[in-house]
Structures are given as structure tokens and as C-alpha cells.
Design a protein that fits this description.
six-stranded mixed β-sheet, 8 helices, alpha/beta, 396 residues, 2 domains, four-stranded antiparallel β-sheet, Collagenase (Catalytic Domain), Immunoglobulin-like
């Protein structure tokens, strides 16, 4: 055991010395993530759940067959730095590019890659150098780039209790916005952690940062408790106090059944040491892939966020629609239950395969879609109006 510990320590030191990101000693107190969850966010996710589940299935199907989920999708990022946010000579635009490059390494298997849309903007308002959570609402009205994920870097970031925090995803309608303490942008895992939140991942200990998880170690309630993902072990909420320099969990907490927790100290969405966090699980990757596929039109086409008109509000509820015949034994399928009047109000449709690749796209004129070019197999049919979207599974 002594030899193993010595060898592990050697590896830990080697990683720290060779990395461009900082490693922290056991006595260092790191700022934690300030992300929280509310009823509105939970409700929003539930409304998307059916679509997300379909894309998750597509991701897992591609993985099982050892095929790529799809070609890599590139997502624009816009960085905004407040006065004094980049003061170190190492924290310049080159360092930002390096952080994004590291982010891309972690998200390669998700099928997503990020790039800097424009050079970082500098916000010179002096009072923004001490940034309290919630202040981004006003800031985003004057410094915001549509069609990109906006990341605001500030020297000091605090919550309502004035505790230092590392970052959070701002819950502002029609905005794609992350706020981070500058130093956290440049460590090995916090940017990926916040991007995970942006793409619908919760902390591995669950939505409540004030108490231990209710998820059981045996995984029997993994789909409803904790982070709602079943390949992440139950996490009692990690901290420096229970993670040693070898990234080992040293805690002794037990769940409601008396079983000792064995959390994943390397998971990026945990509260483990930032230098330890280095991986997402397969189901976490599937969730992020699926969520992005579901909301990407809104993210990259901001006008889709505009309020629907009264005419739009009278559209047929999409959950009442059905597809026939299904299986599609003929060269076309019909949409049953939608009031088709003319080409202007026709449903838009997208046909994708289990790799997440788009095969067909167009308007369902007269509620009819030609499927003669589809090979035998299973597909996802996405039907959309100006204000709603639904996914249907069809078999050819």
C-alpha cells in the first residue's frame, strides 16, 4: 500500500507540474459552484423531457453500435471581462483560447465543440469588479451577444451571503449566460462544470447544495433522486474535507439504508477537488448531447425566443398528433390531428436517424411526408410549429 501511495503521489505531482492548470494542496479552500435550481427550471426541463429522451436514445444507440453520434457541432462563445478581470500576464486571450481548447477535449465525445465568436469584450464599469450573483440581469442588457453562449468573467464573484463562488448559469429568460470568477475560468474543470449545468446537468449530489443527497447507494432511486442520472454513483456532497491529495474519498457517511457512499471523485459535476475532476459519464454525455439538440435552434437563432402571437397560440396542441401508418408500410406517412389550412401553416418536420444525423427536412404539405427514400429501420420525426415542437418515433 505504501508503494502504491508513493506512486500515486508521484503521478499527482507530475500532473500538477506538467499541467497549465493549477493544482491545490489539501489545505486550500476552493470556491464552490453557485448554481442553484428553481421550480421554473425544473418545469422547463420536464416540458423538454420527451424530446431529450429521444435524443438520449439516439446517442446511446450510436455508442452501442460503435458509430459516431454525428459530425461535431460547433457552438459559439462570447467572453466578457469586467474591469481587472484579466490582470495576470498568463490570463490573456491566449489563456482563454487554451481553456476553450481544454473544454473541447472534455466535450469531444459529446459531439460538441466550442469556439470564441469574437475577441473578449472588456466591461469597464468599476462597480462590477465585485460581482454579486443576480447582478448579471442588468449587465446583460448592455453587454450581450445574441446567438452565442455569453460568459462573464469577474475578479470576485459572491453569492447573497457574500461567500466566494466559482460560477453559475444565470436563469434569465431568452439569454444564454454563464458567470464565472476569473481564476475559475483557468483551472482544469470549472468551465466544463458550468457548461455541464448549461447543458442540463445537475451536481452529482443533486439539486440541493445545503444537505446530503437522498439518492441511495444501491441505485434503486437513481432516476428520481440525486442528479437523476443512473451511472453516477450516489454522492453525499463532496468537499475538500473528504477528498485527499490522491483524489480518494475518505468520508464515512451512509445513506438512508445505512450503506456507505462511494462517490466518483473524478466526476466534473461533483464538488470534488477541481484538480481531480476530469470526466463525464456516458449518461451525462448523452444528456448534454440531447439537451443541446433540443434547444440549439433557440440558442443559435435567438429570434425563436420571441413571444408567440395570438394566432400562434391557437395552434393545434402537438401532443395530440399521431402518425400513420406506423410502421410506414407505404411511401408516405400522414399526420393525424393537425388542422392543415395551407402551406403557410404547414408543420415543419425534420427526420433524423439514431446517430442524430438529419436525413430530411421540409414542410408537411397536406399533412403528408414522403418517406420513400428512407431505408428500413427506426427514425425520429421532429414536428414543429412557431411555438412548439414534438418528437415522434417512426419505423420504416
Amino acid at each position: 500500500m505504501l508503494e502504491f501511495k508513493s506512486y500515486t503521489l508521484f503521478l499527482f505531482l507530475a500532473v500538477c507540474i506538467g499541467s497549465s492548470f493549477s493544482c491545490h494542496a489539501q489545505t486550500t479552500v476552493e470556491s464552490s459552484c453557485g448554481n442553484t435550481y428553481n421550480i421554473a427550471q425544473s418545469t422547463h426541463f420536464k416540458t423538454l423531457k420527451k424530446d431529450i429522451s429521444a435524443y438520449e436514445y439516439a446517442y446511446h444507440s450510436a455508442k452501442t453500435s460503435k458509430r459516431a453520434t454525428s459530425s461535431l457541432e460547433r457552438i459559439p462563445i462570447q467572453i466578457h471581462t469586467v474591469t481587472g478581470a484579466i490582470t495576470s500576464k498568463n490570463h490573456n486571450e491566449a489563456a482563454i483560447h487554451k481553456s476553450i481548447s481544454h473544454l473541447n477535449t472534455l466535450f469531444l465525445d459529446v459531439g460538441l465543440q466550442f469556439y470564441l465568436l469574437n475577441p473578449p469584450t472588456r466591461i469597464t464599469t468599476p462597480e462590477t469588479t465585485l460581482f454579486q450573483k443576480g447582478a448579471e440581469t442588468q449587465l446583460a442588457t448592455t453587454h450581450y451577444t445574441r446567438g452565442a453562449i455569453n460568459i462573464y468573467l469577474t475578479p470576485t464573484l459572491v453569492n447573497a451571503a457574500h461567500d466566494n463562488i466559482c460560477g453559475y448559469v444565470a436563469n434569465i429568460p431568452n439569454k444564454a449566460l454563464i458567470v464565472m470568477a476569473t481564476e475559475c475560468m483557468f483551472n482544469a474543470s470549472s468551465l466544463a462544470h458550468e457548461m455541464g449545468h448549461f447543458l442540463a446537468l445537475m451536481h452529482t449530489h443533486g439539486s440541493d447544495n445545503t444537505r446530503s443527497t437522498t439518492e441511495l447507494v444501491d441505485g434503486s432511486n437513481c432516476a428520481t433522486d440525486g442528479d437523476g442520472i443512473c451511472d453516477t454513483p450516489a454522492d453525499p456532497q463532496l468537499s475538500h474535507a473528504v477528498i485527499n491529495n490522491f483524489c480518494e474519498y475518505t468520508g464515512t457517511l451512509t445513506d438512508a439504508k445505512g450503506a456507505v457512499f462511494h462517490p466518483d471523485t473524478y466526476n466534473i459535476m461533483s464538488y470534488s477537488r477541481k484538480a481531480c475532476r476530469s470526466q463525464f459519464t456516458t449518461q451525462q454525455k448523452a444528456r448534454m448531447f440531447a439537451y443541446y439538440q433540443t434547444v440549439k435552434d433557440e440558442l443559435l437563432n435567438p429570434d425563436s425566443h420571441l413571444p408567440v402571437s395570438k394566432t400562434d397560440a391557437k395552434e393545434t396542441p402537438l401532443h395530440t398528433l399521431s402518425i400513420y401508418p406506423n410502421p410506414a408500410t407505404k411511401n408516405s406517412i400522414q399526420i393525424k390531428g393537425y388542422t392543415y389550412m395551407n402551406a403557410q401553416n404547414a408543420l415543419s418536420y425534420t427526420m433524423i436517424n439514431y446517430r442524430g444525423q438529419m436525413l430530411q427536412k421540409g414542410k408537411a404539405l397536406s399533412n403528408t411526408i414522403n418517406v420513400s427514400q428512407l431505408a428500413a429501420g427506426s427514425y425520429f420525426l421532429i414536428l414543429e410549429t412557431a411555438s412548439a415542437k414534438i418528437v415522434k418515433k417512426i419505423i420504416r
